[in-house]
Structure formats: C-alpha cells, structure tokens
C-alpha cells in the first residue's frame, strides 16, 4: 500500500495508526520505507549526501545579555507562582542569560524594598526585574512587574500592574512575562499560549494539551478512541481526528462534539487552521492516496492540490497552504503547490515561524532512522540545519512570537528525550517535558481576564 511505503522512521508512530485504520483501497503495498519508483528509472539522489550539504547552524553560542530577577522573601502562592513563571519564561525565551538567585547582591528583599540597581550592575547584568504578587480577595490577585535597565539607573523603564482572577494565576503570569520580554527586547514574548499533540502507540493514542513552559499536561480525548492530528480551531476549540474499533478517522472536538459532518468522504489524517481561523485544511484519504482539501468550514471543503500522499497540512503566516506530499523520489514540503525541499530527502511536518528577521519554514528531514530539523525561507531557498547527532528530532511547532520552535526529540545525551523548545536559529535547546509524541501545534491562548491597574 502506498500509505505504508511513505512511513519512514520520521513518522513511524503516526503511520502505524494510519495503516491500521486505512480504507480498503490501501490494502496492498510495498515494504516500509521504500520510495516510489522513479519514472524513467534514473538513479534517485543520495539522502546522506543531500543532508551533508546542509549548513549546520546549531552548536555555536553567543553572549546573551544578563538579566537579574530580584529574590523574594514572600511565601504567598501568588508571589511564588508569578516569580517562578516569569523566571522560567525569561530563561526559555532564549534572549537572556538569567542570573541565578545565589548570585544576587546581598540585601533584604521585601516587597517594598527599593531596587539597588548599582549593586546589580556589579554582577554584570544589563537589566533587573522585580516581581510582586499578592492576594486581594477570595477570587482575585494582583500581579506587578517592574524592569530596570542598568544604564538608566534607578528609574523603572517598565512598570505594569494587573488585577487577575485567582483561577487564572499561571496564565496571567505568562501574559505579564510576555510584556516584560517585550520591554527588554522590543517584541512581546509568546508564552501566553499552549501546545497540543498526539501521544501513544497502537490503539492507545490520545490528544494532549500542555502549557508553553511544559506545565499541566492533560489528556483531551477519550481513552477508547484512537486520536491523531490535533489542531486549535475557531473559538480556540481543540479539534482532532479520531477512530474507534478500526473505523475511519473522523473529526471530533475535545469538548465532545462530533463526528463533524464533512463535505468529502474518507478517513481524515491531518488538520490545520489558518491564523485567523477563516480557513481549515484537511488531509483525507481518497481512492488510493491522500489529498488535501480546504474551505471555510468542514462542510465546505474543496480540493486544494492534486499532489498525492498530502500529510501534515499547515498555513503560513501569510495564509499560504503548505503540506508534506509525494515527490518523484521521496516526500517533499510544498507551499502553494510548489516544492521547497530537495527531492530525495524525506521531509515532513512543516511549520512556519513569523520571526522578526522574516518568515522561517522549519520541517523535519530524515535519513534512515534519524531525523533532523532544518530551516528555509517561506518559499524555499538555502537550508540551515538546526539539529545534528542528537537522536531523532521532529514535529516542530513555532511559538506565537515566531522566535522559538518546539519539537520532540529522542536524544539520550543532555536532558534526555522529551519535548524541547529552542531558538529558531537552533541555539539554546531546553527540555520542558519528558513527554514525547507527534503532530505538535503551538497557539496563543484566548484573551485573558486581567484588568490593568494604573500606577
């Protein structure tokens, strides 16, 4: 079956599920990993040679500005939570080196203590952040962040305070962290967000959500339904494709709706929504292949491309449709129907980062059992290799601010296998969870309920 022969190590777990539940038209096939026969019998490119010519950018380091965060003697949950969340976000964002608490200047760190910027400057920091959280009532808290630039002395360059629902303490702390990042870099961070992915094997595959810092992983699909291809859609609803008892994959929501009526008959193997949620894309099994369809909703889907084996649909920040589909020798990444990855190098799972330096296309490429992440422009161009010799790395997803990419890795060195985030240039990879999976998505949270208090 053509479906099986596209299942290399890059997508082994997902493809095992797809093959098990594929319609009868996929019943016959060739051994796993076998590329399609080339027209004319010419020799396909050597994947090892193709991968070897991609410039490696990861591994190099450059000095980052040091940031100090004032320690706190407060034991209130609101203060401890705010400080731990913001500190981790500033560390994960990859824009700073956050000074350890034990290197802070000596002092009495009370909520009303002034910031001794001069003492901090002697520790080599360029900025100092003070955070204060306190409970206001049974259901409200106040969160405040102040930032000082050493070169400007004791006057805060950033001072924002919010009243927030106590139940939303962590998410509102992420929002404040994003503002602090913006005050120090000129662009807000992307941690007021969440990720979704599928994890498990065989008939035990479920959809999960997790915070952008790796906190609060939760199963969102029932255990008796094999779940794949999650995506956040209109109204921040979480959609996924699910199958029970060997049935076709149909579209459900995490809130229990479904199966959703589709205008195209067939098993659903991939979902994506445009940034404004005005368009949905679905990879659907039709006949002996899989094709991608788009439309304003599931009931109005129309063919978007004739390219076969179209998996992992995605939309670029400018609204172009992308997916991984059938090339002459291997699976390639297509944007607006045009390939942007080399033929002969198995490519999968495209995502697009709206980075301050321009839109970056990031996808996985595989040779044998290993996969690495590479980056190019939105419509192709020179490839840069982001990972190398660190296990298999795949299913990338870009942060809402475009400066980070999350991905799953099987690496055994360093922090070990799990879910990682790193800069788009491949630097500062950090594990945020020991969970692994596939079909990763990263989207902003809906608007918060915090109310700013003017100082």
TrEMBL record:
<dbReference type="InterPro" id="IPR011659">
    <property type="entry name" value="WD40"/>
</dbReference>
<protein>
    <submittedName>
        <fullName>TolB protein</fullName>
    </submittedName>
</protein>
<keyword id="KW-0732">Signal</keyword>
<dbReference type="Pfam" id="PF04052">
    <property type="entry name" value="TolB_N"/>
</dbReference>
<dbReference type="GO" id="GO:0015031">
    <property type="term" value="P:protein transport"/>
</dbReference>
<feature type="region of interest" description="Disordered">
    <location>
        <begin position="26"/>
        <end position="49"/>
    </location>
</feature>
<feature type="domain" description="TolB N-terminal">
    <location>
        <begin position="54"/>
        <end position="134"/>
    </location>
</feature>
<feature type="region of interest" description="Disordered">
    <location>
        <begin position="435"/>
        <end position="455"/>
    </location>
</feature>
<dbReference type="InterPro" id="IPR007195">
    <property type="entry name" value="TolB_N"/>
</dbReference>
<dbReference type="InterPro" id="IPR011042">
    <property type="entry name" value="6-blade_b-propeller_TolB-like"/>
</dbReference>
<dbReference type="Pfam" id="PF07676">
    <property type="entry name" value="PD40"/>
</dbReference>
<dbReference type="GO" id="GO:0042597">
    <property type="term" value="C:periplasmic space"/>
</dbReference>
<feature type="signal peptide">
    <location>
        <begin position="1"/>
        <end position="27"/>
    </location>
</feature>
């Amino acid at each position: 079956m053509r479906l099986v022969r596209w299942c290399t190590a890059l997508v082994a777990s997902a493809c095992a599920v797809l093959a098990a539940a594929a319609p009868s038209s996929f019943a016959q096939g060739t051994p796993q990993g076998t590329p399609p026969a080339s027209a004319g019998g010419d020799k396909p490119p050597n994947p090892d040679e193709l991968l070897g010519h991609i410039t490696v950018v990861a591994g190099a380091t450059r000095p980052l500005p040091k940031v100090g965060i004032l320690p706190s003697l407060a034991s209130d949950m609101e203060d401890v939570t705010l400080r731990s969340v913001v500190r981790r976000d500033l560390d994960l964002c990859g824009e700073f080196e956050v000074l350890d608490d034990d290197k802070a200047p000596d002092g009495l760190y009370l909520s009303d203590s002034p910031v001794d910027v001069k003492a901090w400057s002697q520790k080599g920091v360029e900025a100092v952040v003070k955070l204060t959280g306190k409970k206001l009532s049974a259901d409200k808290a106040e969160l405040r962040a102040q930032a000082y630039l050493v070169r400007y002395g004791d006057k805060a360059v950033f001072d924002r305070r919010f009243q927030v629902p106590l139940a939303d303490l962590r998410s509102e702390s992420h929002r404040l962290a994003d503002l602090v990042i913006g005050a120090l870099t000129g662009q807000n961070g992307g941690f007021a967000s969440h990720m979704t992915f599928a994890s498990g094997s065989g008939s035990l595959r479920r959809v999960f959500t997790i915070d952008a810092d790796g906190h609060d992983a939760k199963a969102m699909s029932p255990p008796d339904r094999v779940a794949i291809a999650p995506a956040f859609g209109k109204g921040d609803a979480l959609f996924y494709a699910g199958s029970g008892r060997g049935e076709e994959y149909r579209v459900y929501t995490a809130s229990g709706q479904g199966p959703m009526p589709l205008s195209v008959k067939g098993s659903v193997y991939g979902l994506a929504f445009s940034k404004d949620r005005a368009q949905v894309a679905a990879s659907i099994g039709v006949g002996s292949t899989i094709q991608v369809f788009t439309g304003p909703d599931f009931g109005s889907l129309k063919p978007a491309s004739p390219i076969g084996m179209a998996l992992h649909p995605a939309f670029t920040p400018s609204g172009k449709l992308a997916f991984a589909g059938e090339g002459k020798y291997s699976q390639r990444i297509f944007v607006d129907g045009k390939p942007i990855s080399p033929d002969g190098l198995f490519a999968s799972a495209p995502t697009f980062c709206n980075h301050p330096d321009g839109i970056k296309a990031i996808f996985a490429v595989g040779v044998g059992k290993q996969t690495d992440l590479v980056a190019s422009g939105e419509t192709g161009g020179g490839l840069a290799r982001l990972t190398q010799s660190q296990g298999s790395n795949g299913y990338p997803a870009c942060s809402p601010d475009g400066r980070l990419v999350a991905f799953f890795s099987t690496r055994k060195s360093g922090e070990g296998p799990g879910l990682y985030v790193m800069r788009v240039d491949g630097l500062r990879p950090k594990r945020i969870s020991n969970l692994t999976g596939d079909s990763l998505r990263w989207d902003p949270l809906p608007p918060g309920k915090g109310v700013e208090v003017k100082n």
